[in-house]
Amino acid sequence: MVKVGIIGATGYAGNELVRLLMGHKDVEIMWYGSRSYIDKKYAEVYQNMFEIVEDTCLDDNMEELASKVDVIFTATPQGFLAGVLTEEILSRVKIIDLSADFRIKDVKTYEKWYKIEHKSPQFIEEAVYGLCEINRDKVKGARLIANPGCYTTCSILTAYPLVKEGLIDTTQLVTLSGSKYDEAIEAAAGMVISAGYTPSGIAMDPTLSFGLSTMRDTTGRKIYPEIGFGQNVTNFLGMNAAISDTVSAKNEISKATNLLGIVGQFDAFRWGVQRSIGAHLIEYGDPDGLGDLQRNNQIAIRAEIVYGIGIMDQNAFVKIDKAGE
At residue 85, does pLDDT exceed 80? Predict the structure, then answer.
């Protein structure tokens, strides 16, 4: 039997937790935590629990609670758990937090949206986003689980299968503004660097290279004279460069794309050969329909090599698009 404590048991989410956990055959609720109703019977707060829950509401003492249960649910406002969580508590009990304190990995983003200081950022990295359809195995072994909200659960479970199967392109994107071709490239390189990679190369559609070749300063002189009309450019702003209309797939697809270039760390794009190739010896028979090999002085050998390519991390690349019509 798993012993459970709930902090915030008299709130909306806390009451829903009580209702769900009461129906779980392997769970026993040991602690109904509530700041507002300490020492009041839970069934007096929620009368639908009359003769179902006999317990009295207790306080939110996490340290005491951690010594009495296996799992703590915190159904509390943003900032509560982050303000009281310690390594001592986490070392003794598993915590499932229903607030946003550990959902967002970037502290600045959290503090921007919730307008409060995050009091325990040292635990953010280990927290597992508790969407079991995606992180089931990680949830099993986690000490700290950040339970997802309702809107994000709906949104993620809708989009995740499409992203997983490659039906949605999640590559980072910069949109060309007017004729500022070089600024778009700089912005793309900046996004690659921000993602922790080094922009080592750029693949340009001829439209992008032509745009760069026509750029002039205020005196009328070309800014990038090394890029001529149709010239074979091999370097641009310290990055390896290549020009080809395969970037925009002009000759491969019927519908035009807006893709002008790709900036990224190109060693994050790998190709490989199948290393393990199964071999099967045909002692006799007619595998190719040309006659029984047993009756001929022949040896039949067939070899198959499988080539594969893949992007190790899409954040290593940024696309440059022209604005849609």
Answer: yes
Active-site entry in 57, 132, 150, 154: 150
C-alpha distance from residue 302 to each of 39, 286, 296 (Å): 80, 14, 18
Instruction: With a cut of 80, say whether residue 304 has pLDDT above it.
Output: no
Within 10 A of 176 (CB to CB), how many other CB atoms are there? 21
Supply 294's token pair: 């047993």
The Cα angle at residue 318 between residues 315 and 324, in degrees rounded to 5: 135
pLDDT tens-digit readout, 190-207: 888 988 888 888 888 888
CA–centroid distance for 68 within its chain: 35
Q: Is the pLDDT of residue 293 over 60?
A: no
Gap between the Cα atoms of 195 and 171, Å rounded: 12
Question: What secondary structure letter does DSSP report for 297?
Answer: S
Tokens standing for 213? 């070749």
- The answer to whether 173 touches 319, Cβ cutoff 8 Å, is yes
Tokens of residue 108, six digits: 């600045």
**Residue 69 near residue 57, CB atoms below 8 Å:** no
**pLDDT band per the 50, 70, 90 thresholds, residue 208:** confident
- Compute how many other C-beta atoms are within 10 angstroms of the C-beta atom of residue 159: 13
User: Which long-range CB contacts under 8 A does 252-260 form with residues at least 24 apart?
Assistant: 258/321, 258/322, 258/323, 258/324, 259/205, 259/319, 259/320, 259/321, 260/176, 260/184, 260/204, 260/205, 260/207, 260/208, 260/211, 260/320, 260/321, 260/322
Strands (DSSP E) found in the chain? 2-7, 27-33, 71-74, 94-97, 128-129, 144-146, 172-176, 201-204, 235-236, 239-243, 259-264, 269-273, 307-311, 317-322
Distance between CA atoms of residues 189 and 195, nearest Å: 10
Residue 219's contacts (CB-CB under 8 Å, 6 or more residues apart) are none
Annotation says 150 is catalytic:
yes
**Cα–Cα dist 195/5, whole Å:** 39
